[in-house]
Specification:
The complex is a heterodimer of chains A (172) and B (287). Chain A is 74% helix and 0% strand. Chain A has 172 residues and is mainly alpha-helical. In chain A, helix 1 packs antiparallel against helix 2. The longest helix of chain A is centred in the last third of the chain and has 26 residues. Chain A is globular, with a radius of gyration of 19 Å. Chain B is an alpha+beta fold. Chain B contains six helices and 17 strands. In chain B, strands 9, 10, 11, 12, 13, 14, 15, 16 and 17 form a nine-stranded mixed β-sheet that branches. In chain B, strands 1, 2, 3, 4, 5, 6, 7 and 8 form an eight-stranded mixed β-sheet that branches. In chain B, strand 10 and strand 11 form a beta hairpin. In chain B, helix 1 packs across helix 4. The longest helix of chain B is centred in the first third of the chain and has 17 residues. Chain B is globular and about 90 Å long. The N and C termini of chain B lie far apart (89 Å). Classes of the chains: A mainly alpha (172), B alpha+beta (287). At the A-B interface, helix 1, helix 2, helix 5 and helix 6 of A face helix 1 and helix 2 of B.
Chain lengths: 172, 287
């Protein structure tokens, strides 16, 4: 029978942070994945990963650090989904144009469009535009080179625009 | 010209999740911090347990046809039933001291048909789920249901059950308040009774004494009274119902299409072993 290590000085800190930061983490994940069940799963994965990080004593405990973990979990999810759906090839076969696009996006339609995209396109656009990360930061999150990431973002934008315009046509 | 994609930018808007989810996750984190994230220790789980943990709080007969079960058990015990529920598969027996249902939908994972599905009471379902997993069983994440938070699971031999979280001050089934047709004893045949005694002992805090027959174990702890018998080699749950007149009850079982042994005298009273007309084994006791 092993006595839990109650002396661990970091243990209460993570629980305190949990109480403060749970709405931030859950709110971030729900707004990016659009699915409450998935957002709960990813929230749990985020905090359990945080426990492991606390144990290895590498972490600075704050909300930004948790959102960083949450972003990894979201990308991991989309990566797994992409493998499952075997859409990677199809997504890369899409045409690649990046001409100027002058349009004011309707927020709801944009969100619906985003949810309809292939997982890795969605990942690229969420990180680049919703989270406002730089291209090198997106590259790091996705584990790609900078040039491959630039290419992916261009393709994702093209796919988004096509789907967005189809959605508009359908509404009229 | 600005990039229309910039309209997608979404600042972080905090949003509180479902409070039940938040509470369960908090408990998981607390346990993971205390115990290394994979194992639960006896000290930690024991503190989240009461003597009522492991009580059977709901029993469900897994049959092929609820209408047929209704005819059989109505004829044998005079039971009355609630209406067929909206799912089209479940019937609740009225007036039992321990709630009892009949189900002809797909049985839960690890539960056979014909057989009986037991719902066990726990005080801290997050801790119980972690314990099940640490003991080599499987457990789903706890889910809210109309009657409380529940989690499906299997033991380390693959036998299915459900855990149901109840407040520590919720009353236990009244001891001794037994009416004819009530379940007075449950025999769990888990396959290997020694393995099962370790699993359920660690999970619920049950204690075991050798029973009167080979492979038999008497359990101390749960209500109603329970025992284990490893003689079947696979999971079979046998409910023992109390009757006022066992000779008459045996006749009714046979008349309704079931089988029954002739009553024998046991230390606790008269007893008969039966099966219903869909293959569920059960016992009759005249105390």
């Amino acid at each position: 029978m092993s006595e839990p290590s109650r002396a661990d000085p970091e243990a209460p800190d993570l629980l305190t942070l949990y109480d403060q930061a749970l709405p931030d983490v859950y709110g971030y994940l729900l707004s990016r994945c659009g699915n409450a069940v998935l957002a709960e799963d990813l929230t749990a994965e985020t905090f359990l990963a945080a426990v492991a990080a606390v144990r290895s004593r590498t972490a600075v405990l704050n909300v930004a650090w948790l959102i960083g973990i949450a972003r990894h979990k979201l990308v991991d999810h989309w990566r797994a989904q992409s493998r499952e759906q075997r859409q990677l090839r199809a997504a890369y076969d899409t045409a690649c144009e990046d001409d100027p696009w002058d349009e004011r996006l309707d927020a709801l339609r944009a969100q619906q469009t985003l949810e309809s995209l292939a997982p890795q396109h969605r990942a690229a656009l969420v990180l680049r535009y919703l989270d406002d990360l730089s291209v090198p930061q997106v590259a790091t999150e996705l584990g790609r080179t900078r040039s491959a990431t630039e290419m992916l973002i261009v393709r994702a934008r093209a796919a988004f625009r096509r789907a967005y315009e189809e959605r508009s046509d359908g509404d009229e | 010209m600005s990039d229309p994609m910039e309209a997608l930018r979404r600042p972080l808007v905090p949003l509180a999740p479902d409070p039940a989810f938040a509470a369960r996750l908090r408990e998981r984190i607390r346990l993971a911090l205390a115990e290394g994230g994979t194992m639960t220790s006896d000290t930690e789980t024991a503190s989240a347990r009461t003597s009522a943990d492991g009580d059977a709080v709901f029993l469900s007969l897994q049959v092929g046809d609820t209408a047929r079960a209704r005819r059989f058990y109505g004829a044998v015990f005079g039971w009355e039933f609630g209406p067929l529920e909206e799912d089209g598969h479940s019937l609740q027996v009225q007036g039992q001291s321990l709630p009892l249902g009949i189900w002809d939908g797909p049985p839960p994972r690890g539960v056979g048909r014909p057989d009986v599905h037991i719902v066990y009471r726990v005080t801290d379902i997050a801790a119980a789920v972690a314990t099940v997993r640490s003991l080599g069983g499987t457990a789903d994440e706890p889910q809210p249901s109309p009657y409380g938070v529940v989690a499906r699971g299997t033991d380390d031999q693959g036998n299915g059950f459900t855990l149901h979280e109840m407040r520590p001050d919720a009353p236990r089934q009244a001891a001794g308040g037994v009416r004819p047709g009530d379940v007075v004893y449950i025999t769990i045949s888990p396959g290997d009774e020694v393995r099962a005694s370790r699993f359920y002992g660690d999970l619920f805090g049950w204690e075991f004494q050798p029973g009167r027959v080979p492979h038999g174990l008497q359990i101390t702890g749960p209500q109603p009274m329970m025992g284990m018998w490893g003689g079947t080699g696979r999971q079979v749950i046998t409910l023992n119902y109390v009757v006022a007149d066992i000779e008459a009850a045996v006749r009714r079982v046979r008349d309704a299409g079931g089988t029954a042994t002739d009553p024998t005298r046991e230390p606790y009273g008269l007893s008969a072993g039966c099966t219903d007309d869909q293959g569920i084994t059960f016992g009759l006791s005249q105390l």
